[in-house]
Amino acid sequence: MRTYSENGLLNNYATEPALYFAESPSPKQQQQYALQAAIAVLLVAFTVLTAFSVS
């Protein structure tokens, strides 16, 4: 958004977004995050073990 001062100078600063406080995840979301983390750990472990067994 472009605005001009009384002297005709361009004031081209970015507008700041509204601030809000983040809410902590619900217990169901926390459980989903834990499940995703466990799946990620298993996937990485399987990939590393596969790489070691092939080499």
The run of helices and strands is EEH
Number of strands: 2
Q: Which band does the percent of strand residues land in? A: 5-15%
Specify the structural class: mainly alpha
How many helices does DSSP assign? Answer: 1
Overview of the molecule:
With 55 residues, the chain is mainly alpha-helical. The protein has a domain of 31 residues. The protein is built from 1 helix and 2 strands; from the N terminus they run E-E-H. A two-stranded antiparallel ribbon has the order 1-2. Strand 1 and strand 2 form a beta hairpin. It is elongated. It starts with a strand and ends with a helix. The mean pLDDT is 89.
Please write out the topology:
Elements (H helix, E strand, L loop, with lengths): L2 E2 L5 E2 L15 H28 L1
Antiparallel strand pairs: 1-2
Write a brief structural summary.
This protein is mainly α and 55 residues long. It has one helix and two strands, in the order ββα. 51% of the residues lie in helices and 7% in strands.
